[in-house]
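Subject: for your reference before the review

Hello V.,

The reviewers asked for a structural picture of the protein, and I figured it would be easier to keep everything in one thread rather than splitting it across files. Below is the amino acid sequence we used in the manuscript, unchanged from the supplementary table.
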Amino acid sequence: MESTNGQGLLSVVMPVYNEAAIIEESVHRVGRVLRDAGIPHELLLVDDGSSDDTWVKLAGLDRLPWVRAMRLSRNFGKEGAMAAGLDRARGACVAVMDCDMQHPPEVLPEMYRLWQNEGIQVVEAVKNTRGKESRLHAWAAGSFYGLLRVSSGIDLRNASDFRLLDRAAVQAWKHMPERRTFFRAMSTWVGFTRAQVGFDVAPRADEGQSRFSVRRLTSLAIDAITSFSAVPLQLVTFGGILLLLLFALLGFQTVYMKLAGKAVAGFTTVILLLLIIGGTLMVALGIIGIYIAKIYEEVKGRPRYLVQEESQSEPEKDAL
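And here is what came back from the structure prediction:
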């Protein structure tokens, strides 16, 4: 099996955050699946600034010649960890998956087969079921994907970060210069020949809760929509035009009532108008502020991540 030049090599990128309890089991499970399928592989484990013993566990896994690990200087978020792994992947194709095994590694051989035998350059693993989640979370996810589809044309319904990219697709992704990334949508935006493979979301290996808080999920949704669409800004414009037309009609009515001698005190109407105008202006300024903040982040040009330390082991040909 080839390894030195990356021909046929599958690089599996796994962001890791506070997963000391399960990371060893997860790594061995992925390795076992790929070895049984006869797929040359390497695992890139990216410690996203964990506060537990995750890095100690990863450093211990360096004894495995097909495992490489790196530690980011702080918690940059899952997107930053994935970027670090994609930048350092050496394979002819690269798969990204979660280390908690909600993305079952048993799907990887089929994804690899589609890439190797059928020339598919992006293989997306889509969810047959969403696993255990509350109705509120399911509704919020559906609303987000609906808004993204309407505003940008990118359909991510039942999509996940679990996907395999050909080297050409990885290079295209790396050429996208933005600092605030959304891998799921960016890897869809680049195009290339595509196929989908279904999977059922498994329970977390430790049967715990997701590391994503409501605040982080909301921030990710806002970043995603504003990164791929200017529709929110256009809505501000359309909203302003609509209010202008309504106020013009109200103005004509007020003048008519005055000339007709039917004008009455309108204290309640004035208060309601002030509240509507004020609320609309605040929302509009908030939307504009989000885009200005994104411009500010991009102009600073700070790196997506910083690596504190990295394993120096090279994959052994016989182990791949």
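For the response letter, the relevant points are probably these. The two ends are 7 Å apart (CA to CA). The CA atoms of residues 119 and 312 lie 32 Å apart.

Happy to draft the paragraph if you're swamped.

O.
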